[in-house]
Amino acid sequence: MTKRFWAVFLVLCLTVSLLAGCSSSKGPTAGIDFAKVDYDKDFASLRTPGSQEEAYDYQLFFLPEKDSVSQPYVGDPMPYYEDGVFYLYYLKEAGDSYNHSIYLTTTTDFITYTEYDDPVIEASRSGGQDGWVGTGSVVKVDGKYYFFYTGHAGSDSYEFKEKIMVAVGDSPLSFTKMDGWELTPPSDLGQKNDFRDPQAYYNEETGRIEMTVTAAQSGVARIIKFNLSKDLSDSEYEGVIMTDPTGDFWNLECSDTFKLGDKWYITYSGQDDTLWYAYSDEHYGPYSDPVRIDGKLFYAAKHVEDGVNSYMVGWARRSESASSTQEVSAWGGNLIVQQLEQGADGRLILKPVDAYKEAFTDRRELCFDDVAISIAGGSKYVYEEAFTAYERFMITGEFTFTGTGSFGLAFDYNGRADKYKMISIDPANGTLSLKFNEGTTPITETAVQLETGKTYSFTYLQEGSVGTFYIDGEAALTVRLYGVSGKSIRVFASGNTVDWTNLAEYTMPMEAAYENAA
Questions:
Q1: Secondary element (H or E) of residue 312
Q2: How much is the pTM?
Q3: Is 514 left (phi over 0), alpha (psi -120 to 50) or beta?
Q4: pLDDT by residue (tens digit) across 461-517?
C-alpha cells in the first residue's frame, strides 16, 4: 500500500479517536453514560505544535487576544476582589503593550473572562522613571482606589533604577498617575537598583496603609515594609520582614501576605525559581523556614479571596518555541488560578478551582474497557493507552504503588516513544516532575512524599497546552505540553507496580465553556 494511503488512514484514525473516544463500552464500563458529542476540535490536520497552539480557544487559562502585532502574554498578575468580581491586572508582554504596561481582565468564576483593550497604567512613552512599568497592587481607602506600581527607569541616567509610584482612581477600572509622589529605596539598603513589587493593605484599625516591597540589601534578597498615611502625605520605613535563607536568589518577587485560619502567610517567587511560602503567628513575622509550592511553571502568584475561598493567581510559563522539546523558559504565558487550602499542620495546599471540577461534566470513553488498569514495569518503561487529549479535559482517578520506581502519565508528541512528554511520580526521590523525551529532559518538579501501599486520588486538568496535575491534598505541578492534542495519553511505570483505579475522563460541554463568553 502507498504512503499516501497510510497517511490518510492515520488521519481518519485520529479523527475517529478524538470524536468518539478510544473504544466501545462493554464490561465494567457498560453502565456508564458516556457523552456522544461532536464539539471537540479535530486536531488531525494540525500537525505542528505551533498550529495547535494557534487553534486553541483558551477559556479557563486566560490568554490576551491576539492583535495585529503579535500574540501577547500574561505576566505577574495583580488580583483584586470586590462585589463578586475578580479584577485581575497583569503585565501584558508583547502585542500592543508598551514596555509591558498593566492591563486588566475580569471574571466572576475563573471560567469566562472580560478583557479590557486599553492599558490601566501605561509605561511612559516619553521615558522617565516609569519608562517601564513593573508589578504592583490595588488597595481601596475611603472610596478611592490606589494602584501602587513599580517605576523602572528606561535608561541608566536616573539615580534610582526603580521607585514605587502610584495612580489613583474612583473605580477599579480607571487610574490616573499621581505626579510628584514616589518612594525610593531607604539608605539602609545600600543600593538603588532593586526596589519593586509593592503590595499594599489598608489597616482599618490604624487608618494607615501597610506596604511590603521586595529589595536587596548587601546582595541578599529581602522583603521590607513601609507604613503610609492614607492620604499618602507621609511614609515610614519599618525595616526587613523576610530575608532569603537559601542565599540562592537576588530577588523575592511578587510577595504577598494573608491570613488563613489562625496563621499569617507570606508568599513570594524566588527569581527564576518557584513560588515559596512561610507562615507566622503575626502578620509580618517572624516567619517559619520557607518551602516551595508547585514548580517553576507556576510563577509570580499572588493571593486573592472572595470571603469564602482563597486562590493563588499566577502565570503558566511557556516555551520560546512551541516546537521545543528542551525547555519551557520564556517569560509570561497564560493566566492560571489555583484554589488554596490550609492543611491541618498549617501547610498550604493547592487544588483545582471548584468551578473547574463542576464544569467538566461530559464523561468520555477510555481507551480500554474498564475503569481500572494495573501496570508492572521493570527496567524499561511499560505503557498502556488510557485517555485522549482534547482541547480541554479533566482526568480523575486513584493509584496505589508497591515499588520505588517512577510512574505517571505519558503524552504522545509525534508517535515516537522516545519523544513522550511525561508527568512522572518518583517515590524514591520524593518528586512529582515534568520530563520530555521519555524522561531524559527534566523541565520542572515539586516535592511530594508518598507511601507504598497507600491509595492516593489525583486530578489532572488541561486546556490547550497548559495543565496542572494534582495529587489531591499532597502536591500540585503546573505543566506546559505543546503538540499533544488529539493524541493518546498513556499510563506508565518503570521499576514499579501500579494499580490505577476509578479512572474517568471528562470534557467541558460547549454551553459551559461559552455561555458567558459573549
A1: strand 310-318
A2: 0.94
A3: alpha
A4: 999 999 999 999 999 999 999 999 999 999 999 999 999 999 999 999 976 655 544
